[in-house]
Amino acid sequence: MHIDQSRIVLTGAASGIGRALLGLLAARPCRIIAVDIQSDRLEDAIRAAGGQAEVIPYVGDMGKVEDIDALFDLALSALEGVDLLIACAGFAYYEKLEQAEWDRLARIFEVNTLGPIYAAIRMSEINRDHPYKVVMVASAMARLAIPGYALYGATKAALDRFAEGYRLELDDPARLLLVYPIGTRTGFFHRSARGQDAPYPWPTQSAEHVARCILRGIERDQLSVHPSRLFVALLLADRLFPLARHLEQAIELRRFRSWLHRVQHPAVK
After folding, report:
1. CA separation (Å) from 263 to 157, 187, 204?
2. Domains, the chain
3. Rounded average pLDDT over 12-23
């Protein structure tokens, strides 16, 4: 797919991978609706991006169907269509699951899973006779379980399985691209731990690196993007030597227990 001259909707544009993508896309001749739930941070991200692209801000909650529908209404009126949807909006919990909270469980699935899936189907509806592409930012945790991120990993694993089945229904499987970042060095993981600093899952990478990999994957019509070669090697090693997975999980479990101890006993150093 050619990105230049495209009409683009980018969610989660105010921080992390979304903000890095906004900076790269704004430098190209295209039209963008930049979406985020936080208006101040979105305005700052748009100012910082600069560039030659036309950028229209939209403040909305990608876990609410009415906000997603309003976003598409805006795109159809302001851009006269959408060629590329990049769904970066999402969040994580880093915690030990000890209390059942239905609304909290529903919230993470609404934003991380239902929102992107609903938006992907809307893209199909409005582009019946026009080529398009949907990019969903999943996670390496869709394929490798890590303690502390059980819910987050589940939301991303659902995207992974949805993509596998949905591509079988599409006339062109390349219309749907999934991205599997590893731990990305942004404020994402710090915000996931109820005010506590959460450790980055190992290994890590920058948001800018992930953003460049995503754009390259779009232009090459890839079905998936794995920004970390080390993670790809880990997946291959797991097929041959299942102990590789258990070793990584044991390392993360030790880090999780250490973090949990610090949270539960803040006075102990």
Report:
1. 28, 18, 23
2. 7-264 (3.40.50.720)
3. 97
